[in-house]
Design goal:
Length: 432
């Protein structure tokens, strides 16, 4: 198996993770800047990646920035925000060609790193803030993004279920922020916030490609010199064990033809736990793949759903089930989904289901090794968890999982919230 071990070096208070590999013809840089997920900063954090991609001090206009990317042999710059557990992450990436594979051998690694660190730390400004025109344009884009959530009913139902299930917890917040905050957010205030973020929030810089760690660290040392002093915040994982007092049923009515049934469960299993690999197998058997119980029993046997699957939010200890159903089939679908959860608890799992799930998971993890971005994502999850579990260790742990292990994990899973998005017709009893 290929060596997928990142080498981690601290440059002051910034962590640099390098994976030297001859597998890739391009070099990928990714930066994660982590903030707490909280109401007062969620919208500002969501706005920053878009604003930072508009221009830097040496390429202050969008046209100059695009020209710079062309000069870097068609480099690709990207940025976004996501939430992982109770953490709100800004994520930036730059993918460039590796100079070893170019005839004229330009100093692309050095130029690429210079440009990437400039995007992060030397943004285009005017007066005491960001360029106002960029901030206003990106506020409009973000407003559209937040408003368009309701147009994508699958994502809307997933977010609403989380809001209801995690009421009073930071995880309930939408990672793209809140409309109410946008109006009064100005270029100066956002810039002041940005300066605080890059000074105090944890930063992890990644590089994957045919490079040497020493070379990358040396190039970064000078470029980070002004950013690496002082203390950065440290975050601990929020506890995932949360007793469910009673099942909640929440129904929303919108103008929809197809019902969206989303069910949220608390797994009560931490990502750092020895039981975590068994939880991953549990999710695979339950609803992670086309051979899973939910897919077979809800969609194929009972023909109740257009889709039905489950996924884990590992850092928050949640298991989310998503399905699209005919509106009249609500109760039957809930019953059959509950039957599958109960079947898992009682160990009604055959050896074939176990082996097929392990094989499918193993393939999925091995495929990650061929994609630099997924290798980075996997490693950063262990940084957030505060405990490294390499891909190789994860693959070995999955092979060791027995049916008894899956049942032990299944017995901890508690159904918390049933969320149903349905049409506006029908009687007052929302489920009929």
């Amino acid at each position: 198996m290929a060596n997928n071990h990142f080498e981690t070096v601290s440059i002051g208070n910034i962590q640099v993770h390098v994976l030297p590999s001859t597998k890739f013809k391009t070099t990928t840089f990714v930066a994660y800047i982590g903030q707490e997920l909280k109401p007062e900063t969620v919208t500002k954090t969501a706005l920053l990646p878009a604003v930072l991609q508009r221009g830097t001090q040496s390429t202050p206009t969008t046209i100059e920035l695009k020209r710079k990317l062309d000069d870097l042999y068609g480099a690709i710059l990207f940025g976004d925000v996501s939430k992982r557990g109770e953490r709100h992450l800004m994520e930036f990436g730059l993918e460039i060609a590796n100079e070893r594979y170019l005839q004229d051998k330009p100093a692309l690694l050095e130029e690429g790193l210079s440009f990437f660190t400039e995007v992060l730390f030397a943004s285009a400004t005017e007066g005491n803030g960001f360029k106002a025109s960029y901030v206003e344009a990106e506020k409009k884009n973000l407003k559209q993004k937040i408003e368009s959530l309701q147009d994508d009913k699958i994502r809307y139902a997933a977010q609403r279920m989380v809001e209801e299930m995690c009421k009073g917890e930071p995880y309930a917040l939408f990672n793209h922020g809140r409309l109410a905050d946008l109006e009064q957010l100005g270029a100066t205030e956002l810039y002041t916030y940005y300066q605080d973020v890059i000074r105090t929030c944890p930063i992890d810089l990644y590089c994957v490609g045919n490079v040497s760690t020493e070379q990358v660290v040396e190039l970064l040392r000078d470029r980070l010199a002004s950013q690496v002093t002082g203390q950065r915040k440290t975050y601990t994982l929020a506890p995932v064990v949360r007793e469910v007092k009673e099942e909640k049923v929440v129904v929303d009515r919108l103008n929809v033809k197809q019902g969206k049934l989303n069910i949220g469960c608390r797994t009560q299993t931490e990502i750092t736990s020895n039981d975590y690999p068994a939880l991953v197998v549990y999710n695979g058997i339950l609803g992670g793949f086309p051979h899973s119980k939910l897919f077979r029993n809800v969609r194929e046997k009972a023909s109740l759903a257009y889709y039905c699957s489950s996924r884990l939010e590992s850092l928050k200890g949640l298991l989310m089930i998503q399905s699209g159903i005919e509106i009249g089939n609500f109760q039957r679908a809930v019953d059959i989904i509950k039957e599958q959860l109960e079947a898992m608890r009682q160990g009604r799992i055959d050896q074939q289901e176990l082996e097929q799930t392990k094989a499918t998971l193993t393939n999925a993890y091995k495929e990650q090794q061929d994609r630099s971005y997924e290798l980075i994502h996997f490693h950063h999850q262990s940084v957030l968890a505060g405990q490294e579990r390499t891909l190789e260790q994860m693959l070995q742990a999955i092979q060791r999982v027995s049916i008894e292990d899956v049942v032990r994990v299944a017995q901890k899973v508690q159904l918390d919230t049933i969320y149903f998005l349905r049409d506006q017709e029908g009687n007052a009893d929302a489920k009929n």
